[in-house]
Amino acid sequence: MELEKLLYLQGVGAEFIDCFGNLVHIPAKDRQGILTTMLLPSSGHQHAFSRHSEALCHLNESYHQPLSESQVAAKISQLDIQPWLKPLHNFQWCLIDKPHVDIYLPERDSGAFSIKIHSENTQSISISAQVNDCIVVGEYHINGQRYCQYRLFFVHPSLQLGYYSLSLSFINDPAHPDVLHGQLMVSPSMAYQGRLAQTDKQFWGLNAQLYALRNDAQWGIGDFGNLAELIDYAAHAGADFILLNPLHALDISQPDNPSPYSPTDRRRLNPLYIQIEAVGEYNALDGELLSQKWQQKRQILNQAHLINYDEVQQLKYAAFEKLYQIFCLDHVKYETPRFKEYLAFIEQDNVALMQFVAMELKLASKNFTHDAGFYLYLQFIANEQLQACQLNAKQCGMSIGLIRDLAVGAISHGAEVSANVDFFGDNASIGAPPDPFAEQGQNWGLTPFDPVKLKQHDFSHFIQLVRSNMQSCGALRIDHVMGLLRLWWWPLQDDLGNGSYVYYPLETLLAIVCLESQRARCVVIGEDLGIVPPEIVACLRDAGIFSNELFYFCKDYHGFKSPQEHKRQSLMMLANHDVPTLFAWWSGDDLRLRRQLNLIETDDKLQQLLAQRQQEKIQLVDLLIREHGFELPLPTSSVDELEFDSVLLAWISVAAKGNAQLFSVQLSDLVADKHGVNIPGTWKEFPNWQRRLPLSIKQMSQSPKVQQRLEAIACARQPRSNARSSVSAVNIPSSDTLGH
């Protein structure tokens, strides 16, 4: 019983509902294995991405033995008993419409105390009260003594959203002579929604992989200059936002692992997105970077369909070095206003920046010989250019502007985890449990937050993480938002079992997200695809967090749902980076590719899946006929006789007319590209996160088909009273003849 209590206190789950609705009990060995990973000392970050790492072999073998009764009791005392003996906790929170402070005391009939609440802008609130003025909201019995959680509700006109320091002193109580200190977070009940809550407008935009944008002038990879170009183009078409891949800093020592969802530090930006020509120091180079030597290298990189991250990094960092030298000579030396802006940027987030720079120096030691100021300069420039992009988006009339993406975790040996190990469970990695689609489960090689450590350190890193990612954008998409409630942990040591769900303080984390959202005036979208625990659905909805739906998955027993059945409070994406493009799905090329990669085991299985896809295509066309209102030509015998361009236009138009308040199409679908961004389950087998778009933004603007698709979206997203009944006639047959 005591061991079970400790598992509960550490957040280790006992059961879950799988994708088929079945109740799965997690074996005791696996749960205890996760408990062991939590109680092990830090692994020292010598491991990287694999569960099969041998880096933990140095750990004391005694940790592999079952916990003794005294060890279990000591840990329970720390987590469950000691908090009741501390009158004022280090961190607590309340809602702005029900402000209160909690104190923990032995049961008593009377007693006076004083509370002072100091705001971030030095304003203070003083409250004097009696224990009798409080209500009891919790209790615990220790050695026959009842301890109570007393809650004092108060009202004060100057109380606002934010973080406050607390001080508690007892009046004439020799048992508590000292002044106690803590922190109070005052949170809203909902995240910021801005215009989305004030209008019936149907917002729409484009989702883009920034690195995949292309033009002839870039340095082999999409950058913030290309983003500015895309913003102008999309805003002119009437778009409200651009949804981007995560912009997080990646491991510069491993350019062959370019996934934006495997960052070294989620608080920092990837310098490869810097547009060199837009840097203030560029003109002072007197055209050096326009010489034949530099231009030949750029031309070779720009002609490739796949990004060579190693060569791009070498070339751009060589150019960055030139720019940094000019910055030091022209600005650092003379302490110019630009240098002072640089210093102000560093001061604003000094600790996190220095953590990042220290790791950059370590990771880059094999390839580069730069000083700390160089890496600070790159972050300064990247931040400057991203801010300019969001400002441009708003000035162009976009309602939201940029939507950034926050990855669910960071790599174990990167700056974020290494410098903040006290917040993380670095003897485990994040993933998903086994299911029919991934029989061995999924391991993402990312280090999870430890829920107990988060609480013990006042959630400070989580606050910083959310805050930094809500800068320079109008909305933030939180990848795998279910992680606010639970994450599947894989132990890095195989002998510690096959993993378990670990649960997090959902209400507290959600309150932090809502507060930071309101402070940054940033809408929040939660990526809730996959197995969504029912206990989180209502919490996200009530907090004003937008769901993230994917058209492919909006199905029921009869086929694809009517777009009018899509969730109102959601972002509907036709496709995303983890699923096939619309062209690949329609042609079945995605299935054939998966067979080539042995992700589909046999030819017979491939044929089964192709037959199933054929039925899904029929269901899709049925939906388009029901919903679109287009003229129908003479019957045909098969969906395969349809022109894909016509299907795509109808597909986009129908989906865009749906009920979801936010709607987006990825650029690769807008240009009917067959190549996907990422194939889950592959790494070296497929060039994930490397493929560039087949068209530049200029070429898109000159394409009648692309223009027609954009116009169809804009028309469909208009208020119903203003929208035209149809866009154009398309070649779609009668539904009663399809497939026969």
Characterization of this structure:
The protein is of the alpha/beta class. The chain is 34% helix and 18% strand. The chain is built from 21 helices and 26 strands. The protein has an eight-stranded parallel barrel, surrounded by four helices. A hairpin with a 2-residue loop joins strand 7 (135-142) and strand 8. The radius of gyration is 28 Å and the shape is globular.
Helix/strand layout:
Elements: H1 2-9, E1 15-17, E2 23-25, H2 28-39, H3 69-81, E3 91-95, E4 100-106, E5 112-118, E6 124-130, E7 135-142, E8 145-153, E9 162-170, E10 180-187, E11 203-208, H4 224-236, E12 241-244, E13 248-249, E14 265-269, H5 292-303, H6 309-332, H7 337-348, H8 350-363, H9 372-395, E15 401-406, H10 415-418, E16 428-432, E17 442-443, H11 451-456, H12 460-469, E18 475-478, E19 486-491, E20 500-503, H13 506-520, E21 523-526, H14 534-542, E22 546-550, E23 555-556, E24 559-560, E25 570-573, H15 582-587, H16 589-596, H17 603-628, H18 644-656, E26 662-666, H19 667-670, H20 697-701, H21 704-716
Parallel strand pairs: 3-10, 11-12, 11-26, 12-15, 15-18, 18-21, 21-22, 22-25, 25-26
Antiparallel strand pairs: 1-2, 4-8, 5-6, 5-9, 7-8, 9-10, 13-14, 16-17, 16-19, 19-20, 23-24
Can you give keywords for this protein?
alpha/beta, 18% strand, eight-stranded parallel barrel, globular, 26 strands, 740 residues, five-stranded mixed sheet, disordered C terminus
